[in-house]
Design brief:
Layout lengths: L5 H5 L16 E3 L4 E5 L3 E5 L10 E2 L9 E7 H10 L2 E9 L2 E2 L8 E7 L5 E7 L8 E3 L2 E10 L4 E4 L2 E4 H13 L4 E6 L5 E7 L2 E6 L11 E3 L4
Helix pairs in contact: 2-3
Length: 224
């Protein structure tokens, strides 16, 4: 069965990234013969036979998965963990930031000068127009009055500490596809975790990396 409104599903996993164009839109990964869409932290992999569109080809390798396992997790357990996390005020963007044209949003510029010996030298320095911010006018937001899960709250799924914002991506995909439970097949404390949603859709979620142990805010209960 084809996935309905696939564009709505896939756009949730893309991000704007001028340095890594493969993160900006879905593509057919010729290395694995699957359609991929990723923001660099969460990756959705879909069998092209359940999609209606054709996607540009690209190749992106994925590191070998570690810590194989076979555990089940339900959407109810995910919702419960998200609900137990700390809450913050929801804010929506009312106007996008205006990027600095001088440094093209990088916050740095390259200066050139010629020394007394006639040699040309280059120097990276803070942009004198935006003072290193990368924008001229900052993004503006406003509060909606709702409380939402704090994005950098830590949720433990088996061995893996995962940011709540990335667990929310897993929840979104399961809700979108009306999937009540998924299978965790690889569960790494410091690498990628693989969630099999069904025979055609998988999600890979990177664990939170930190040099120091941090307490989790909630736990997703797993089923053997």
């Amino acid at each position: 069965m084809k996935i309905k409104n696939e564009a709505e599903l896939l756009k949730e996993f893309c991000k704007k990234d001028e340095l890594r164009p493969l993160l900006e839109a879905p593509f057919y990964n010729t290395k694995y013969n699957k359609v991929w869409c990723t923001n660099g932290y969460v990756l959705i992999e879909i069998n092209p036979k359940v999609l209606t569109r054709k996607y540009p080809k690209g190749e992106l390798r994925f590191p070998e998965l570690e810590c194989p396992c076979k555990k089940k997790l339900t959407i109810e357990a995910i919702n419960k963990a998200l609900e137990e996390c700390p809450k913050v005020d929801e804010e929506i963007v009312v106007s996008e930031e205006v990027k600095c044209k001088e440094c093209e949003g990088y916050g740095e510029v390259t200066w050139e000068y010629t020394g007394n010996n006639g040699c040309t030298h280059e120097l990276e320095a803070e942009c004198p127009i935006c003072y290193g911010k990368g924008y001229i006018i900052p993004e503006k937001t406003k509060k909606t009055g709702r409380k939402i899960t704090k994005e950098d709250a830590i949720i433990s799924i088996g061995n893996a500490p995962i940011f709540a914002r990335n667990v929310n991506k897993l929840k979104f995909a399961m809700d979108f596809l009306n999937i009540k439970s998924a299978t965790l097949t690889h569960n790494s404390k410091g690498g990628a975790n693989k969630f099999v949603l069904n025979e055609n859709v998988c999600l890979f979620v990177v664990s939170m990396y930190s040099l120091e142990e941090k307490p989790h805010d909630a736990v997703v209960e797993l089923i053997d």
